[in-house]
Amino acid sequence: MTSLSSGLLYLVLALPFLGAAIAPLSLIAFGRLGSLILACFPVAALAILFQQSAQVQERVPILFGFDWIPSFGVRFAFRLDGLSFGFAFLILAIGALVVLYSGGYMPKGSKRGRFFAYILMFMGAMLGLVLSDDLITLFVFWELTSITSFLLIGFNFEKEAARRGAMQALVITGGGGLALLAGLLLIRESTGLTSLTALLEQPDAVKALSIYGPALVLILLGAFTKSAQMPFHVWLPNAMEAPTPVSSYLHSATMVKAGIYLLMRLFPVMGGTPAWETILPIFGGVTLVVAALLAIRQSDIKLMLAYTTVASLGLLVMLIGIGSELAIEAAVLYLFAHSLAKACLFMVAGSIDHSAGTRDIRALGGLARKMPMTFAAAILGAAAMGGLPPLFGFLAKEEVYAATATADLTGVLTTAAAVAGNALMFAVALIVAIKPFAGTMPSGLRKAHESTPLIWFGPVVLGIVGLLAAIFSQTTHQFISNPMSPPALDGAVAVDIALGFHWGPALILSIITVVVGIALFWRATRMRSLVADLLSRIGWGPDKGFDQLMRALVIGAFHVTTKLQPGRLDVYMKVTFAVIVATLWATMLATSSLPAWPAMPDLYFYEWGVIALVVLGAVVVVLANNRLTAIVSLGIQGLAVALLFMLLGAPDLSFTQFMVEILSVAILALVMTRLRLMPADRRPWRDVVPELVLSIAGGVGFALFLLHITQRPFDASVSEFFTRYSYVIAHGRNIVNVILVDFRGVDTMGEIAVVLTTGAAILALVRIRVVKSDPRYSRRRRRKAGELQS
């Protein structure tokens, strides 16, 4: 790839972030026209992307990037192929329409600029996610989508429900992101492969390893939390507290598809196994049916669409789990159709709310004459969602049934789940598209009117695109369907389904779906009450469970904090040393790293004298009758270490140690004379013995650890580096001084700051005690007390 092409693709990634940077100023300067300017950024990125479509259609991946952290083999690397191209197309195209929609929907005020900045930042994060090739880069953008979605969901932070929804989304998707990171690191370290391209070139590298099971669970946790699979689905309906442009973009077309993208991307690497073909269809099928039932129970239009989105995501997961060629084709077609239809219907919901002032389906009716453009968009979106011809959703639904309708038990169960879920979702689509617009208009809606073109333009365009994509299906397959399928199937696939009469099981199932969906629509009120009664009988659910979990977390953290941080220095020291001792011993015992007993060295008499001095100092410290004697005796240990440095040929270190020990003993002795402490430790043995055990375990643990280190082969690379470069780089021949002042200058400055802070704290402590012992201080206290009493 030429440097010009590489630079243009970097520009594709950068344009949304550039738009976010200028969003506040653009809206201040140009008002509502600012949204037109901001929409140009994703449109320009989309135009650049389409310049690479010819190579993408030839199924030749475009790789670009640069080293990010070379020492760890991390690259800021990206891959543009059919799968990432299809997702990037949806992100940028729907994103541009959402930006325009937001210009008409969001009220004037200082918060508008922040909103546009957030949504463009999310666009850039999502774009980076689907284009990432390096595993670590993928995780970085994955978490960036969670952070930006948190900001968007909680945009109206004055509302408690918005704050809760944002926090719930962040906790669930962020927790899944950490699981994903663990899975990616497990794959990376086990296979030695650091990029998706390398994994796709060796598709059996992960399946053949013993870590496949744990890695699969961790990856699925990341995907299921992001794509709202049961029981992690609760964050998505609660995210409807966000402004409607956020719902139509993040929670229908893009962010919730991140988990679907990950499963499609890793299907050649991790799919096709019994575990994959069991877990995904079960979770996907349950999510599809349960969420569709929850959708028909709602009366808020956005909540109805939110639960149908969860159901659609379940259908996609189920198809990817089936994993056949037809199933992956169906997943690609359904992904495209669902993104168009659901983004359209969410915008319709926002338009109704913006004009009528309510989203309650029971309080709406007769809006067709008042809002004809919105009504037309709603009909197109509902028809696409229900899979009616001649919409692209019809082709997707036909392919779904062709993939599931097999004679085995798995085929029967997945087909039943698909028919039930699609029928329920079609009923919900009919409710959303017909109920607000048909019938008699309630008196409270007399002032309802068609919104500005900026609001109805987006849903109308999406509805028309869903129609044209089916009419010109071969063009759609050429640019979207065919290029997206091969990366998922790891082979060349030609999707050729088009509008027409396809008699067979798929058409029969489609007819059944439509008939059942219409019947459920006519009995929607009865169905709503039945599902509501069932849920009331069940009572507990994942949403309530999340609150209980968070409450338990807070209570547990409170109790742990009060135990470990009670404000007492002795407790802090015990906890710190206990953790260190546990880490030392657990690591050595778990890895069988206990050192061999060393041979007794041949020491000179004066070296034996130094050892005897160390032992004598330790005995004196333990047997000292008061703290002052113990502190002075403790200096013997430091002086003995200084003598060892001198005997081993390090006079500068020896001198430093001498000075530090003398200064430390002098300061501690000074403090002890100033503070009113017990002269000796008078605690009972039940308090002393645990500390004695802890100190002995710590001393022995550090001794064994150091013995283990000294028995390993010596790595002289660091020593050779400092020897070679100390004079060349830092112009100093004293290597120790060069390390302290030049190579570790910032660290040394930090150590000096710590010593200075400690000295200042000790000085303040001493002065407080001195002042309180001054008779003048007592007289002032008595005088102030008298004034307060009077």
Structural account:
There is one protein chain. By secondary structure, the chain is an all-alpha fold. The protein has a domain at 285-522. The chain is built from 32 helices and two strands. It has a two-stranded antiparallel ribbon with strand order 1-2. Strand 1 (62-69) and strand 2 form a beta hairpin. Helix 4 (82-105) packs across helix 20 and helix 15 crosses helix 17 (392-404). The relative contact order is 0.06. The model has no long low-confidence stretch (mean pLDDT 87).
* Alpha plus pi helix count: 32
Name the strands of the widest sheet in spatial order.
1-2
Q: What is the terminal-to-terminal distance? A: 88 Å
Output the structural class.
Answer: mainly alpha
The profile of the biggest β sheet is: 2 strands, antiparallel
Gyration radius, rounded: 34 Å
Mean pLDDT, as a whole number?
A: 87
Low-confidence sequence ranges: none
GO cellular component, one term: plasma membrane
Organism: Aureimonas ureilytica
Domain MrpA C-terminal/MbhD: 612-676
Keywords: Antiport, Cell membrane, Ion transport, Membrane, Transmembrane, Transmembrane helix, Transport
